[in-house]
Amino acid sequence: MRAFPWEAVLDAGLCRLRLDPTVFWGLSLAEFTAMAGGLARRGERLKREGLERLMSAYPDGSSEGARLSTAP
User: Fold this and answer.
1) Domains of the chain: total
2) SS3 for the chain, per residue?
3) Do 59 and 40 meet the contact criterion of CB atoms below 8 Å apart?
4) What is the C-alpha radius of gyration for the chain, rounded to an integer number of angstroms?
5) Is 45 inside any structural domain?
6) What pTM was estimated for this model as a whole?
7) Phi-psi region for residue 5, left (φ > 0), alpha (ψ -120 to 50) or beta?
8) Model pLDDT for residues 29-71, shown as the tens digit of each residue
9) Phi-psi bin for 38: left (phi > 0), alpha (psi -120 to 50), beta?
């Protein structure tokens, strides 16, 4: 059994979500998980062939890539 990831949970709740400590400690684990995005549906990870298609469609140094990287 792994130890509970207190450091990550405290960082997510108090730093990233900027919850007041009273609110943070009053949440149930289910409520915190929902707020932190743990219940969000996750898509499939990018596979090598998908990465290769993207790299072919948007090569480094292309004028389109350069234009997008300088946009405000």
Assistant:
1) 1
2) CCCCCHHHHHHHHHHHCCCCHHHHHHCCHHHHHHHCCCCCCCCCCCCHHHHHHHHHHCCCCCHHHHHHHCCC
3) no
4) 20
5) yes
6) 0.51
7) beta
8) 999 999 988 766 777 888 999 999 999 999 987 565 555 554 5
9) alpha
The parent domain of residue 24 ranges over 6-55
The answer to the question of residue 42 being in a domain is: yes
Output the six-digit token pair for 42.
């996750």
Record the tokens describing residue 28, joined without a space. 């149930």
Residue 9 in tokens: 């949970």
pLDDT in tens, 5-25: 999 999 999 999 999 999 999
Q: Which amino acid is at 69?
A: S
